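## retry 2 of 3
previous attempt timed out at serialization; input unchanged, resubmitting
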Amino acid sequence: MHKLLCIILLVFSYGYTIGQSSNYGLLMDKAEIREQLSQAENDSTRAYLYNELAWAFHYNNIDSTQYYAEIALKIAKSNQYQSAVSRALNLLAIVDFFHNENELGRKRNLEALAIAESINDTFMICATLNDLAIDDEINGLPHEALKKYKKSLAYDSTVPFVAFTYLNISSLHLKLSNDSISRIYLKKAITNTSRVPHPFMQSITKLSLGHLYYEREMLDSALIYYTEAKEIAELNNDYYNLTYSLYNIAYLKQASKQFEIANEYYNQALDISEQHGFVLSHSYILTDYLSLLNERERYDEVVKIISQRLSGSFDGSPEEKLGRYEVLATAYEGKGEYLEALRYKDSIFVYHDSLLALDKQKVVTEIEAKYHFSEQEAKNKLLLAQQKEKELEISNKNLLISSLIVGILLFTILIGLISRLYWLKRRHNKELKKSVLEKTRELQLANEKLLDSNQELERFTHIASHDLKEPLRNIVSFAGLIERRFKHDLENNQVNEYFEHIKRSARQLYRLVEDVLEFSKIKTANDIPTKDTSLANIVKEIEYSLSGTLQERNAQILSTELPIIKTNEPQLFLILKNLIENGIKYNQSTVPIIDIRYDKSKEFHHIKVTDNGIGIDHTHREQIFEMFHRLHDRTEYEGTGLGLAIVKKILTKMRGKIEVESKPTEGSTFTVSLPIIE
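## retry succeeded, writing output
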């Protein structure tokens, strides 16, 4: 869902034009705008109305948006109506965004911003700053985006729907895992919406609240807010927000296995989006709806719907085509039509490779450009410093020679020369001190640039890991496909055994890639935020997430009364989940038991996780926390050897520690010690 919800917020941010403090009013009906155009008596009014007409079409006909915005731009330029020029450029940037021409859209918005600042049009300043900030987010520059969002807030807090900016900041902090800050800005958006009430904004705010709770896996709360957003949109004939509200509810119902209800909401969302021409949202909703039908093994319906609703060429972006090919491949595979499934699998490879190639090239180009710029800048500074040093050295030598000559010739002015030299030495020391301070500041700037480069490399690591995982998924998929297709022709059981080895090895390597990526994220994490956290609730969430494993192994998790402590909830969840999973995995008992207890010392919280598993020899107590270190063969126990390494890395970041007490065949007790935070 939350790919689509991000697209929704992005479209709203690029528009940012539901209301305006000076020249632009609330969104008008197309027929109303055309009526006013027929009666317009001056070019300024016509330029304004053509901009309004361009915006009215942006939901369902981006080509019409471009057509009317270009007319508005031509009229506004010929009449030097700068506010309308700025607005037309901003609308054309929306068109560029939909055509994936982000660089051209950024140039238009920068030009629109310069014009708006020159005439102090606060609404257009805020609009273009938000659009440029969104572009920074897309290019992986969250700190630059945050600067622009905050700059837009500084202009005029009374601009209608400034809540959009608060929502954008909240969404950005949510992406950066700053949950507490995200909630602060979300509350500001809610306050602003209530202070300047407008149904459209109220519905958007409810959708954002639902998204926040969805990301925190509080699905019941998310459903409440999505439902409230739907009711507000229905009451005010706001079909755009109604479409997304219905879609979000359908997605939640699908996640909770309420398939019939999900089916109903999907169809409502599709009907409304198709009726009102919401092309972008209709495409993504349809893809997810078809995935639901595949999940319920209604493969014939999937093929029928695609043949009825979509052309054979699959018009749309590469991402949309990729999603549809994946749906069709799954449907044909489910129907047993393996040749058709293979055909669409081949198409998936083509579009997937093209998308990854574009992403990788963009990241590599950005990193290379920043590296070469930093390298050249460092060389220039070094050459300048060397030149100044030589000039200073020559100056000092000349001064010394002159002093000696004057000393020999005029002994009487020796005292004066000594004083002069002393003064020059002091000045030289001051210059050196100043140079040291300047180089220190340069070093600080270089460190900041290095941090930015690390963020770019982190994005590159993510893409590289995706490159590794996708072929592994395909290996498993095609091995299974070949095995099912030629099952009756493979009389040799040893061949079937080979296929099983292929799939098992591929899955193991896939998990290894995921764990390595998780480990790299922890290694570069920012300071970890803390809050009051219920240990009992964490244990309950772990029980829920491991319910399948617990039932399969007949395992039990026991705990005494657990308190509320101040710590980082997500990190502690990951620590305890790893320890509990290990206690169940490395356990030969018919009833694996995990016992969790709490103790406290002067400086630390102590959480003890005890199992009745196979135990650990004392010679291996330190080695188990090393990356990729395994005590057992993979044929005995699955895993990547990263679980405990991740646990130790997290605790080191949290200024905590972990210890283990164990004997072979007698189980193990892991003690997690976290610093007490007042």
